[in-house]
Amino acid sequence: MESNKPIDDPGSLAAAAASFPLLVYDHGEQPDNSQTVLSVADGSLHTYQLPEMRNFRCLETPQGLVLIIDAASLQCSLWNPLTGEKMPLPAMDEAPSEYCRCLVADTGSSRPEWNPDSLVLVYDLSRPELLMCRIRGGATAAWVRQFYDMGLYEVPGKPITERAIHYMAAVQGVFYYLESTPNTIGALFSFADDPEPGLELVTFNAKLPELDRKDGVTLRATKTYLLEHSKDLFLFCLFYKVVDSTLELEEFGAYMMDLTKKEWIEVDNIGDAVFLLGPRGFAASCPATEHGLKKGCVYHACDDLGDSNDYEIFDLKEGTREVAGPNQDIPVLSRKPFWLVPVHPDVNMNS
């Protein structure tokens, strides 16, 4: 296990390109505003002081780019951690909430290539609100705010709140998400020739996977993740059971959406790839062999493991689970560990 003193170098992550994907442990402002990064391929640890994470809000995306927002001016940029390249985007009119995720998706064609009509979408997990802008136009463009209605969330004894999207994936220019209505998928479409970005909604029924146990009990998925893989929509599910008032993992599985039949098909072969899952529904696909990873595995770094900084590895083919993590103590974190994944080679950030 290797560990270095902090390196203050904007291109330092580019030097670690061969070690991607990286699990990032961000220590925030104290004591030295540094980040520890773990390569899940070789187990190496390095510590950096990344300028992009000082005084900036960072929203990582499954597409490998990171939306960075200046804390003072709210000026935005898309950052490629592999190259250090930045694409200017317009400033926001108000700071996004703490509970946000970001996606980048092509809207100009059916091919998932990155062109100036790509949409940057920020969706709030705490309220029904979308923020979007096109890469075309750079910093002179504008963010467009769009609201939607998923109904109300009512819990006895607590204030009524509006439901919001929690799981979303961008697949060939379409943003898919899980509706609040059971077994319903929402799809948001955008059109490149519109004068400003806007999303039109359609929904369709697709029964979510369930686990039929031998004792006759049927379990619904406790945790779900939506993601794009090989131009298809995938779902990863974790099924838990209650044992002595605590949750224990019963089963896990990966499913591909058959858009013709409108149904989830269970798969144990995802080709030469791995899935990377993180907090607040983050889910990405990454080439396996190219990055020194065992194909067909799912790396799950999320809240289920508490503050241990460990992650789970699920092998879809063998049906096994193991726990791995850094072999040394990690300083106190300012946020949950998050993934930096390789950027697709066809990404074009030119405006």
From TrEMBL:
N-terminal signal peptide: none
Domain KIB1-4 beta-propeller: residue ranges: 38-315
A Pfam short name: Beta-prop_KIB1-4
Name the record gives this protein: KIB1-4 beta-propeller domain-containing protein
Organism expressing this protein natively: Urochloa decumbens
